[in-house]
Design a protein that fits this description.
mainly beta; 4-stranded antiparallel β-sheet; 11 strands
Amino acid sequence: QVQLAESGGGLVQAGGSLRLSCAASGRTFSNYAMGWFRQAPGKEREFLAAIIRGGGSQLYADSVKGRFTISRDNAKNTAYLQMSSLKPEDTAVYFCATVRVVYTTTKGFDVYGMDYWGNGTLVTVSS
């Protein structure tokens, strides 16, 4: 099993930035592609970004492309989500997860499943 723990959430003003961290323990972190998701009150969980095992390719949802950046440090067993130009509609609980990916010729790779989840960290963006 892999245990995941998110941190870095909090209250930020619109236009501000936050960096979320996802610390992994258990099995070898570098064996897993990682993803970030969020869930706002009353809404379904939404995919945000993913990164392959070696970190050389990333995938983003259109809603965050250009504002959010996913990265990872396999030596530290940690994945990150750098968020900038935050908007009130970005308010949600943010989760990291190990993801299953399939490589494609069109966009590099795609996510088709998730296995292990963290408990989430709350991000609140005030207007």
